[in-house]
């Protein structure tokens, strides 16, 4: 079959006689890639900082930043330098042996988080799984819950990844349905509802798992004081507080962790995405010895977790955050973004939720869907992703400049006209 043959679902072309490079690659993807995503019709081949270039030489402002995996920008010179240096030296040892990279990375990450131990993994979902296993094992061996009875309270509207256990407690039918039988042991309460959480905790509850801000949910910000309330409640009841900061952490909200916005320290940080600098998957669970100390040799593991390449990049990421420069940028420029978007409320935008350089924008649903808005913004040179219905999520790399935020807000203004 030729690359350009028309087939059901193929993108419409203005002139099928002369397919563009974009058409060519979109066709190849439609023919050969499983359809578990529905990408916008742009084919990226190069990138730098906050900008990407497509196969036809058009430039776009990247206001998604790999779902916050690219907090430090595309091809960040410090992170690329760390990766390149490591690539020429040592890439993998497995955890059967030590490498000269893992200790320094974990020391620095633990210091950034103010915790004692790090358990390195690769993807975010693996880190969430690790946190679930940690809290169950802690429940049986430290708290004294009868074996097999541990329960974990989770939030409605959550997104924690895609494994069979994690989607077992997702309430998004697209993520959840037809993957059963499901893993038991989870209780769902409304996000931001402290009374419901209190009522859900029993003697068998080992942990509360939450996103300090729900990213995939549409940048949903809980009521003021809720995180602090969760912290007090979990401490009183002897339950671990697990903060999934995979998307909210590492500078995005103007603080190192979103929990910092309420001066809350969870028992367990779950990190990923930006920890790999947009180069390699690096995730981690970070906690004190009283919690992560439950693991013994062989009780958990990963072939690639903690590999020297990932550790070198991860340590360089921690180095960038240790200066506070990126957090400061996110806070300062986040105000510019919020001001710009707030001006559009009532002019095609119903509501804006903003923390640092992270915004959920609810469009007037009678005007267009989030998907349509994403298409139109693409035509205006800005890349974003819709979440649910009429919501668009904005999360540019933290290296974005003030005048580039104006480009973004201008593009919104134009598509709403
Ligand atoms: C992206 C994300 C995950 C899953 O990370 P993967 O690397 O895709 O497995 C988990 N939790 C949150 C909050 C996320 O945003």
TrEMBL record:
Name this polypeptide is given: ornithine aminotransferase
NCBIfam families named in the record: Orn_aminotrans (TIGR01885)
Protein encoded by which gene: rocD
Top EC class for this record: transferase
Highest taxon listed in the record's lineage: Bacteria
Gene Ontology biological process terms in this record: L-proline biosynthetic process
Region (Disordered): 1-22
Keywords noted in UniProt: Amino-acid biosynthesis, Aminotransferase, Proline biosynthesis, Pyridoxal phosphate, Transferase
Family: Belongs to the class-III pyridoxal-phosphate-dependent aminotransferase family.
GO molecular function: identical protein binding; ornithine aminotransferase activity; pyridoxal phosphate binding
The keyword Nucleotide-binding appears for this protein: no
Involved pathway(s): Amino-acid biosynthesis; L-proline biosynthesis; L-glutamate 5-semialdehyde from L-ornithine: step 1/1
Lineage: Bacteria, Bacillati, Actinomycetota, Actinomycetes, Micrococcales
Entry EC number(s): 2.6.1.13
Gene3D superfamilies (alphabetical): Aspartate Aminotransferase, domain 1, Type I PLP-dependent aspartate aminotransferase-like (Major domain)
Cofactor: pyridoxal 5'-phosphate
């Amino acid at each position: 079959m030729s690359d350009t043959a028309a087939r059901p679902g193929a993108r419409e072309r203005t002139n099928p006689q002369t397919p563009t490079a974009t058409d060519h690659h979109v066709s190849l993807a439609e023919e050969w890639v499983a359809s578990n995503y529905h990408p916008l019709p742009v084919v990226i081949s190069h990138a730098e900082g906050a900008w990407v270039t497509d196969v036809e030489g058009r430039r776009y402002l990247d206001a998604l930043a790999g779902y916050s995996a690219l907090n430090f920008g595309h091809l960040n010179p410090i992170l690329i330098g760390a990766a390149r240096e490591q690539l020429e030296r040592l890439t993998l040892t497995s955890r059967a042996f030590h490498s000269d990279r893992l200790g320094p990375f974990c020391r620095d990450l633990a210091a950034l988080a103010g915790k004692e131990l790090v358990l390195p993994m690769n993807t975010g979902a693996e880190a969430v799984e690790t946190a679930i296993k940690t809290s169950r094992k802690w429940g049986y061996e430290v708290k004294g819950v009868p074996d097999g009875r541990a329960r974990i309270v989770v939030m409605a509207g959550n997104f924690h990844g895609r494994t069979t256990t994690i989607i077992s407690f997702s309430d998004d039918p697209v993520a959840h349905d037809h993957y059963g039988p499901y893993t038991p042991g989870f209780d769902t309460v409304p996000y931001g509802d402290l009374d419901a959480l209190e009522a859900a905790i029993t003697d068998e509850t080992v942990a509360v798992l939450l996103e300090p801000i729900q990213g995939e949910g549409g940048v949903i910000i809980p009521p003021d004081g809720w995180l602090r309330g969760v912290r007090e409640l979990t401490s009183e009841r002897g339950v671990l507080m697990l903060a999934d900061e995979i998307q909210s952490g590492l500078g995005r909200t103007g603080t190192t962790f979103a929990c910092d916005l309420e001066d809350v320290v969870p028992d367990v940080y779950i990190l990923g995405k930006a920890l790999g600098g947009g180069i390699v998957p690096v995730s981690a669970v970070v906690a004190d010895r009283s919690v992560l100390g439950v693991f013994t040799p062989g009780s958990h593991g990963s072939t690639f977790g903690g590999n020297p390449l990932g550790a070198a990049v991860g340590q360089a990421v921690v180095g960038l955050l240790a200066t506070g420069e990126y957090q400061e940028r996110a806070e300062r420029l986040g105000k510019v973004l919020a001001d710009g978007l707030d001006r559009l409320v009532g002019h095609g935008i119903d509501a804006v939720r903003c923390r640092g350089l992270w915004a959920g924008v609810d469009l007037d649903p009678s005007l267009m869907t989030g998907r349509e808005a994403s298409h139109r913004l693409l035509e205006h040179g800005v890349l974003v992703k819709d979440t649910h219905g009429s919501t668009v999520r904005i999360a540019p790399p933290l290296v974005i400049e003030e005048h580039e935020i104006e480009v973004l807000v201008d593009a919104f203004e134009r598509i709403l006209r």
